[in-house]
Design a protein that fits this description.
This protein is of the alpha/beta class. It is built from seven helices and nine strands; from the N terminus they run H-H-E-H-E-E-H-E-H-E-H-E-E-E-E-H. The protein has one domain: 3-Layer(aba) Sandwich (Glycerol-3-phosphate (1)-acyltransferase), CATH 3.40.1130.
Length: 220
């Protein structure tokens, strides 16, 4: 099957609905443990703005659990690729608003839309090295987004006692059925806006160094 035909099939409404339901059922098999959620959730409920951040390698395992945040009308930036179409449809069904765009295509209008949504609803997610990597390198958009919305950045990390790793640029993690899966939130990180390029880059590097230990590098 060619790539265009594959995306045409995968992009059909019945297939997307099946994928969403399959992911939910599959994820129910995980023995999920959630750590350190309380502080940032309290900050959000008290009027703060929160940007949840993950490596591309690890976001799959959070899909079912993150449905609990749909009441906050959160947003997530997703690329305009064929794969992005599939991910966007799943995000929408989970209660997350998909903002289409990436660093390689339509990044500026997508970032503007994310800023508007985050200022209005105070919760969003961001894949810091997606959609094409390189793995473990934080891109600058997350810092710009946090500056523009006065958001705290909250990294989250996924690990599993048993998992498959795809042969992809990020070695995408897929826990095996009935695996013990840990969803761990890091501490809130607050950056002061700056117009100085050196200070901005320092913040980007600080976030990268903070999150890098959570990347499963032995799979790369």
């Amino acid at each position: 099957m060619g790539k265009k035909m594959k995306y045409a099939v995968m992009g059909s409404r019945p297939v997307q609905e099946f994928l969403y339901r399959f992911i939910r059922v599959y994820s129910w098999t995980f023995r999920l443990r959630v750590e350190n959620e309380g502080r940032w959730l309290s900050h959000l409920r008290c009027g703060g703005t929160v940007l949840l951040c993950s490596w591309h390698q690890q976001f799959f395992s959070a899909i079912r659990y993150f449905r609990k945040y749909r009441q906050y009308r959160p947003s997530l930036m997703i690329s305009q690729s064929g794969d992005g179409d599939i991910i966007a449809s799943i995000a929408q069904r989970t209660g997350w608003h998909a903002v289409r765009g990436s660093s390689s295509k339509d990044g500026a209008p997508a970032l503007k839309h994310m800023i508007e949504r985050l200022n209005s609803f105070h919760l969003a997610g961001h894949i810091v090295d997606g959609p094409k990597g390189p793995a473990g390198i934080v891109k600058a958009g997350v810092i710009r987004l946090a500056h523009a919305t006065d958001a705290v950045i909250v990294p989250f990390y996924i690990s599993a006692d048993r998992a498959w790793y795809f042969n992809s640029w990020d070695k995408f993690l897929l826990p095996k059925p009935f695996a013990k899966v840990s969803l761990r939130f890091g501490e809130m990180i607050k950056f002061s806006p700056t117009a100085q390029e050196q200070a901005f880059e320092g913040q980007r590097v600080h976030l990268e160094q903070t999150m890098r230990p959570g990347l499963i590098t032995n799979a790369l």
